[in-house]
Amino acid sequence: MKLTTIIPILTLALAAHAAPLSFDFKDPKGVNNAVFKLDAPLESINGSASGISGTVTFDPENPSATTGKIVVASGSLTVPNPMQKEHLHSANWLDVAKYPDITFETKSLANVKTDGNVTTADATGTFTLHGVSKEITVPIKLTYLKDKLGARVPNMKGDLLVIRANFTINREDFNIQKGQYEDKVSPTIDLSLAIAGAAATK
Fold first, then answer.
1. Which of 6, 60, 68, 116 is the most buried (most CB within 10 A)?
2. Is the dihedral of CA 119, 46, 134, 76 positive or negative?
3. What is the mean pLDDT of residues 103-124?
4. Distance between alpha carbon 188 and the CA centroid of its chain, in Å?
């Protein structure tokens, strides 16, 4: 086989096995969000956070190798009641001035299953809240949308990675008013993440 024939074949082979993609979760549309719920006997508190950023590395040909870190700005957490929001941000609760970030950094994926462009897995990583870091395992769903960035953000080209996750934490594990006010503020916090990251191309 001539060298002039081999080179195009090698080029095609390399292109077929593309490098992992880096997805930026700083959403230009500002619609990425995390939702939280505390359902206590006397009160149910529901809120959300929009200050989301982070980077995830994803290989469509090897989803199990996914790594990354998602960051939520604690100051972006909000609830409908202004007084509750003030308490939530205060030094007695989340102390957002001292601990401005809530983060989850993935260490590994297990029970990885891929069907078409959708991958489900159990992601184990470090969750940091209120200055306390704990290793937790979270069920996640990853949806890889090739060439769909322009459908979400006009005039931009590239791919999207959509992440969905639902899990529960205990606030006492993160030194947030341990054992206090449990009739009004549930000791468990239900979290729901719905975010999309972009891998832009020129």
1. 68
2. positive
3. 97
4. 20
CA distances from 83 to 16, 61, 78, 170, 179 (A): 55, 48, 11, 23, 21
Cβ-Cβ contacts under 8 Å for 106 (sequence gap 6 or more): 56, 66, 67, 68, 69, 123, 124, 125
Backbone angles phi, psi at 15, to 5 degrees: -65, -35
Superfamily of domain 19-201: Lipid/polyisoprenoid-binding, YceI-like (2.40.128.110)
In whole angstroms, give the CA distance from residue 24 to residue 178. Answer: 35
Report which of 46, 33, 83 is spatially closest to residue 196, judged by C-alpha positions.
33
Q: Could you give the CA distance from residue 68 to residue 52 in angstroms, rounded to a whole number?
A: 13
DSSP state of 9: H
- Pick the closest to residue 67 from 3, 114, 20 (CA basis): 20
Q: What is the dihedral angle through the alpha carbons of 145, 150, 151, 154, rounded to the nearest 10 degrees?
A: 160
The per-residue pLDDT for range 8-50, each reduced to its tens digit, is: 444 444 444 568 999 999 988 888 999 999 999 999 999 999 9
